[in-house]
Design goal:
single chain; alpha/beta; Aspartate Aminotransferase, domain 1; Aspartate Aminotransferase, domain 2; 7-stranded mixed sheet; globular; binds pyridoxal-5'-phosphate
Length: 418
């Protein structure tokens, strides 16, 4: 029984509890944060019963919608039967999941290491690359985010997510893929170092929704092949139909050697995977296990997630709604002086705001997000300057709901602009 004296609806009191008991590195959005209590489809409800359109999906996780009955039924059934054993026994859900992923992912990606978070999956991918190549240096890109563990944080370039003062020095940084000299730098690094792998996000998520330029990825793959270097796609945020395909890399014309998935794979249940070819996986034969790798409940959830996405063509839905959203955003917001750029793919969209200097812009975005929340819309915030309004709703969102978001955003940007 909880000893808390807080009323469920008293956000101010919960903020105090958080200050006392949660590490300060774990920050929350909003000056007046709602206490989120319930979810349904594309909507969240706070403890007072106020309804919000969820435009961030718990950072790209809830693609199949909150409280999805089909997924919950599969989870409940598994929970009643058996919750956890770990990897030392055979169990059906995780093995079925591996078969299903092998069917859905590009040919040749058919061998899997399951774990519980995106950071952990990226660690596994980096380790496999080291074992497979006998090399221990990596290239990642400016503005990237790959996770919170030692190697994943060393791979990360976004300054705000590189807290550890003793990060590993075997991670070279190339310019952001949108920079014209990026591939040139990659080539030079490949020539001068023994690089095990290049790791990239097809669309930089936390970096502010930067989409790789057309033709970039095939050229990167080509360079890697010339230097016998592996290509790792971190699709923790872009994978599982967020951008319209199971893997965003495929739509950029490349099958990576290793790909990591997490977030939307479990639709709220913790599961992640590093995926590769059976041949490459052979390099990692010494014992390696994650206690929760392929946890039965998470695996049952992921199987149900994949079925739901397939049955409801959520990839097509993300493509079509994303195209429409982009057009409407350009039409209604493109003319506003504070809107620098609108970019993205599928339902992974960023609206970059500039309003004065960096600090003024950050403060302005804080106000915009607060007003949007008060109007019933919860958005994300990304980019090194924290100035990119980020729209990643559940893929089950209705077009009419997205139109109300664009209308509210236009109204708020206009009113604060005055
Ligand atoms: C692209 C990318 N990689 C890795 C991670 C880390 O995932 P996790 O928080 O599950 O460890 C994130 C988290 O936002 C991410 O966006």
């Amino acid at each position: 029984m909880s000893t808390s004296i807080c009323s469920p609806t008293d956000a101010g009191a919960w903020v105090q509890v958080k200050k006392r008991h949660i590490w300060p590195c774990v920050y929350h959005f909003y000056r007046e944060p709602p206490v989120i209590a319930r979810g349904e489809g594309a909507h969240l409800f706070d403890a007072q019963g106020r309804r919000y359109l969820d435009c961030y999906s718990g950072v790209g996780v809830m693609s199949a919608g909150h409280s999805n009955p089909q997924i919950l039924a599969a989870v409940q059934q598994q929970m009643q039967q058996l919750c956890h054993t770990t990897t030392i026994y055979l169990s059906e859900p995780v093995l079925r999941l591996s078969e299903r992923l092998a069917e859905l992912l590009p040919e040749g990606i058919d061998s899997f290491f399951f774990c519980a978070s995106g950071s952990e999956a990226n660690e596994a991918a980096l380790l496999l690359a080291t074992l497979a190549t006998g090399r221990n240096e990596f290239i990642t890109f400016e503005n990237s985010l790959h996770g919170r563990t030692k190697a994943a944080m060393s791979a990360t370039a976004l300054p705000m997510w590189r807290t550890d003062p003793e990060l590993l020095d075997n991670f070279h940084k190339a310019p952001q893929p949108t920079e014209p000299n990026c591939l040139e730098t990659v080539e030079r690094l490949l020539q001068n170092h023994k690089i095990a792998a290049v790791m990239f996000e097809p669309i930089q998520g936390n970096g502010g929704i930067h989409v790789m330029p057309g033709g970039f990825l095939p050229r990167l793959k080509n360079l890697c092949q010339q230097h016998e270097t592996l290509l790792i796609a971190d699709e923790v945020q872009t994978g599982i139909n967020r951008t319209g395909d199971w893997l965003a890399s495929t739509s950029f014309g490349v099958t990576p050697d290793i790909v990591t998935l997490a977030k939307a794979l479990g639709n709220g249940f913790p599961i992640a995977v590093a995926a590769t070819s059976s041949q490459l996986a052979q390099s990692y034969r010494k014992p390696g296990a994650s206690t929760f790798g392929g946890n039965l409940v998470s695996a049952a959830a992921a199987l149900a997630v994949l079925e739901y996405h397939t049955e409801h063509s959520l990839g097509n839905r993300a493509s079509q709604l994303g195209r429409w959203l982009s057009e409407v955003l350009h039409k209604q917001l493109g003319k506003l002086s504070c809107v620098k750029e609108i970019r993205g793919r599928g339902l992974m969209v960023g609206v970059e705001i500039v309003h004065g200097d960096e600090q003024q812009t950050a403060d302005y975005v804080t106000d915009v997000l607060e007003d949007l929340k008060d109007a019933g819309f919860l958005l994300g915030r990304t980019g090194p300057g924290r100035n990119v309004l980020t729209i990643m709703p559940p893929l089950v969102v209705e077009q009419s709901d997205l139109q109300t978001l664009v209308d509210a955003l236009e109204k708020i940007l206009l009113s604060i602009n005055e």
